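During the no-cost extension, the postdoctoral fellow (Dr. R.K.) reprocessed legacy sequence entries with the updated structure-token encoder. One reprocessed record is reproduced below for audit purposes.
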Amino acid sequence: MSTVITSVDHRSPAQRAGIRPGEKLLTINGHDLDAIESAIAAFRAENEKPTCIILDTLKGKGVSFMENSVDWHGKGPNDEEYAQAMQELNAAYAALEEEDK
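Re-encoded structure tokens follow.
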């Protein structure tokens, strides 16, 4: 989704971040490589105004016991959890590889 900023409230977080009217804001699915590539192409094509790309992602995407769980910030899995996570991620990767055939 692309939005052109029309106004910025005085003393707002956006104003403090330096966002100005006319700038473009892209919000995309941060897990979709095609969307990321399209957003980067749009960024490179814009020469007049700054473009900000926000990638909407899910913490721990693809690992059942980690997905969307804040408990995993700053903590690594033990050996058993690591093995399960790698099994789930490898299965998801294999499914993507099959789609490409």
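The two ends are 29 Å apart (CA to CA). The chain has a mean pLDDT of 90. The remaining legacy entries will be reprocessed before the final report is submitted.
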